[in-house]
Sequence to fold (152 residues):
Amino acid sequence: MVEIVRIGLCLLAAHIAAGAAFAVLFHRRGAAAIDPATQRTGWGFRLVITPGIIALWPLLALRWQRAASGRTFLGEPDAPVAPPRLRAVHGLAWKALAVLIPLVLAAALGWRPRDPEGGPLPAGLSASPWATGSRRAETVHPTTPKDGPRPD
Fold:
């Protein structure tokens, strides 16, 4: 489990690093190739779109490559994407999300840490009252009996 998270974080870091390098190049040449209106924009606009460029750099690289070769990606301003094609793409995205979101949620719930029968949890984690099935967590001190201190 920890190894899966570590690999996922390394992949995310690599994606962000590649996106940051791509953003520098994209601001210099690519934005104007995709949309000529961005040639006269200031640094404020470029700063605002930078997180999106970093996150979506594979899509923007494909769009930049198609614009450089003279092909269009999703249509021209005078001839946008046909509504049936756009609806088909959106339908596919909804179906993918309908499958992926429950899978991710189930994986997250299945991989959460649990209190193993009185054993210690990893450092920094505490057992929730829902992990054991009871809604009320009881704290029992090892020196005090469960019924409370006995009067002598």
Remarks:
- Helices lie at 2-34, 43-55, 57-68, 83-110.
